[in-house]
Design a protein that fits this description.
Radius of gyration: 17 Å
Structural class: mainly beta
Number of strands: 14
Largest sheet: 6 strands, mixed
Helix content: under 10%
Oligomer: single chain
Distance between the termini: 50 Å
Strand content: 25-35%
Order of helices and strands: EEEEEEEEEEEEEE
Shape: globular
């Protein structure tokens, strides 16, 4: 890891390894790791899984962008801020364990998981017991297949939108509706 000092510790500025499983430590040579910098792991094609420690509160823009082999990631309870496109174009991402208690809302164009997920099943989101609320636009731009189901926590808050209206069972998106002011999920009736 290459580190960069910040106000309250150190950020991982760049990953220089080639491991397939990365378990980021809370300390590296007595340096407290509190954030993952912009593009720190971008284009790391060997990485298949990442575990982020509870010491990390911030994940930068494009931090894991274009990690084409990445299959799973664990976002800890401590994370409160995630930059735009942080996990974009992770085309083999299958599972996200989301434990972040209360992350800042995303903007419509933040595209956190833009074009990520497998073409056959999208991404399986597992929400931990510590999650107080799901931030606005968390899943915006995540492709799916109709036979894949969103997390049970979103039951009643999503609707299927096919890419091709002539082929309702093919590729598309599960649309989730949220109040623009409060970020609260809005119930929808699926017909």
């Amino acid at each position: 890891f290459r580190l960069l000092k910040n106000d309250s510790g150190f950020a991982i500025n760049e990953y220089v390894g080639n491991a397939s499983k990365v378990n980021i430590p809370s300390y590296i040579s007595n340096f407290y790791i509190n954030s993952i910098g912009d593009s720190a792991f971008e284009n790391c094609y060997n990485i298949k899984s990442v575990i982020i420690p509870d010491s990390v509160t911030s994940i930068g823009s494009f931090a894991f962008g274009d990690c084409a082999s990445l299959r799973s990631i664990v976002v800890p309870e401590s994370v409160t801020n995630i930059g735009d496109y942080a996990f974009s174009r992770c085309t083999n991402l299958e599972k996200v364990c989301w434990n972040a208690k209360c992350v800042d809302d995303f903007e419509f164009q933040s595209n956190l998981f833009y074009n990520s997920g497998t073409s056959s099943s999208g991404i399986d989101f597992v929400f931990g017991d510590t999650v107080e609320r799901i931030p606005k636009y968390l899943c915006y731009g995540v492709p799916a297949k109709k036979d894949s189901k969103p997390p049970k926590e979103l039951s009643g808050f999503y609707q299927w939108l096919p890419v091709d209206v002539e082929n309702d069972s093919g590729d598309g998106y599960y649309m989730m509706y949220q109040d623009a002011l409060t970020g609260k999920n809005i119930s929808v009736e699926i017909i």
